[in-house]
């Protein structure tokens, strides 16, 4: 009996160790903390899969647990005044400094878009609330944090449109004036899917002939920028990295566009391109737009083109995929050239690293002033790990550098 118990104990122990252990590169700091954090995320993801399998609750519904757990009630304090408002029918959190202004002095503003793969997250999560307060106090700025609607309840372009309506509303001279914001010092910024929305908004505003107030800068934190090639070197290198494994990113992409599961499987196989997207592959050609050190270990082959497999009437996702409001990397240089000054943050251990690297390179080649900050020990989502118990030193470094850039450029 005893030996059976010991055996059972050993098997369970080995199983737990195997489950908790995930290979994490040596140069990432606080590896054990990241391993445990990742174990939690993976467990939740497995639970979500299981729940969907049993028909209890869909995958994203279970994953929303993280968003709910981290939810706070944003309250005003002695330094920051917070209010919930509606801009063109979309909820926003307005963070304003209490600090006195000099006579006639106008403030900077940052429109911030949270991450979460267009499916998860909220401006009301503790990490975003904290970041907004830091921006307010360190830059004496107004922060507009946008509560756009999420997939799978709402698909593309709802997320983009919610954000665009907010930005258009805010960038009116009388509205800016009512918040004492200088129309020449407004930024759009976001992380991950929020970085995608920020890049898309910056492009669409520039193309809008009726838009008079322009953005001064765009600050993109490990942004998602293209859906056509999901096998870039960074997708290959980091497919099993913590926080955002490739399967989760593919799930986010496919659910952004549709609830039809077949898109997920074809995106997993990277054979989701069609004759309609083929002509745009040149804009995401990583053998042309990645620095040599990042591509030399990989052989480029363009994603295969499925010959007219898309059944009639169901080509919605194909249309969405090639839409620059979803994939801002898919525009010609002429659209990039007039864009505002950019800050692009990338992390080495991130499937999205090459999206950011290619955008930084293409913007620069088009003549845009770009600051590209690459964290060689960074992992996806790091900036949001800024509160206990998942507080990482790298989050503090990233926030400081990001805020410093805004101080100098906004
Ligand atoms: C990608 O770029 C390489 C090198 O610049 C070029 O040889 C190749 O034809 C390009 N392929 C596509 C699909 O754009």
UniProtKB/TrEMBL annotation:
The active site is at residues 192, 350, 380. The keyword Transmembrane applies. Its main location: membrane. It catalyses: cholesteryl (9Z-octadecenoate) + H2O = cholesterol + (9Z)-octadecenoate + H(+); 1-O-hexadecyl-2-acetyl-sn-glycerol + H2O = 1-O-hexadecyl-sn-glycerol + acetate + H(+); a cholesterol ester + H2O = cholesterol + a fatty acid + H(+); a 1-O-alkyl-2-acetyl-sn-glycerol + H2O = a 1-O-alkyl-sn-glycerol + acetate + H(+). It is a single-pass type II membrane protein. GO terms for biological process: lipid catabolic process. The keyword Ion transport does not apply. Belongs to the 'GDXG' lipolytic enzyme family. This is Neutral cholesterol ester hydrolase 1. It comes from Pygocentrus nattereri (Red-bellied piranha).
